[in-house]
Design brief:
The complex is a heterodimer. By secondary structure, chain A is of the alpha+beta class. Chain A is 51% helix and 34% strand. Chain A has 2 domains: 92 residues, 2-Layer Sandwich (Alpha-Beta Plaits), CATH 3.30.70; 45 residues. A 4-stranded antiparallel beta sheet of chain A has the order 2-3-1-4, covered by helices on one side. In chain A, helix 3 packs antiparallel against helix 4. Classes of the chains: A alpha+beta, B mainly alpha.
């Protein structure tokens, strides 16, 4: 199992349902190959730095996943025939990047558990604490 | 001895310059992220070319990593190959 990072640029003219479908199709393929999506983000519509296939804008999707190397070939084959995708890049993560990733995942987990805790606690002080701790984490992103 | 003298003379004419240092070494960044275009942009020219390490003071190792990051960012259209 290797760690990979994947950016996909979709057609910006695509509607939200189309984006959902594309995202689902990619995650399904990864999971079918015994992979696991660790993180996925939507960067939304962005202006491209240069024109690609007559596109000025693109919808960026970002995935971090763990999968066997064979899945990458299938993923690339999918992108080549998958119409909404016009540019993609898959990168294998190195040791240091994997360590940083695991740290960030742990931090996200801790944040999630901290957010669920104040809901059970009744005093307002705990809530304020949670808000303060959540703010810097958001700034990092 | 002669060489030493030459060097000090040379320094006399040189303007005062703050010593350059590698920012990545100083900050101990674990790796250079290609997605962090704000950092990368400080290492490229207005035209989009990468700056040499003799101008930025980046160490050889981090310059290599920076090159890779810039190339990746260009590939996925986060940075441009050339600004018009």
């Amino acid at each position: 199992m290797n760690y990979y990072e994947n950016i996909v640029i979709l057609d910006a003219a695509l509607e939200d349902t189309g984006i959902d479908a594309a995202e689902k199709r990619i995650t399904d393929l990864i999971e079918k190959q015994q992979g696991e999506v660790l993180k996925h983000e939507r960067w939304g519509r962005r202006k491209l730095s240069y024109e690609i296939n007559k596109h000025e804008k693109g919808y960026y999707l970002f995935f971090v996943f763990k999968s066997p190397p064979a899945a990458i070939k299938l993923l690339e084959e999918l992108y080549k025939v998958f119409d909404p995708v016009f540019k993609f890049m898959i990168i294998k993560l190195r040791k240091k990047e994997i360590i940083a990733l695991q740290n960030s995942l742990q931090a996200a987990e801790a944040k999630a558990s901290a957010e669920s805790a104040p809901e059970t606690a009744k005093n307002d002080g705990a809530k304020n604490d949670a808000e303060v701790s959540a703010a810097p984490a958001g700034a990092v992103e | 001895m002669v060489q030493k003298g030459k060097g000090s003379e040379h320094v006399k004419y040189k303007r005062f310059m703050r010593k350059k240092f590698c920012r990545f070494c100083a900050e101990k960044t674990p790796f250079i992220d290609y997605k962090d275009t704000r950092t990368l942009k400080s290492y490229i020219t207005e035209r989009g070319k990468q700056l040499p390490s003799r101008m930025t003071g980046t160490c050889a190792r981090h310059q290599r990593e920076l090159t890779e990051a810039v190339k990746r960012a260009r590939n996925i259209a986060l940075l441009s190959f050339m600004e018009k």
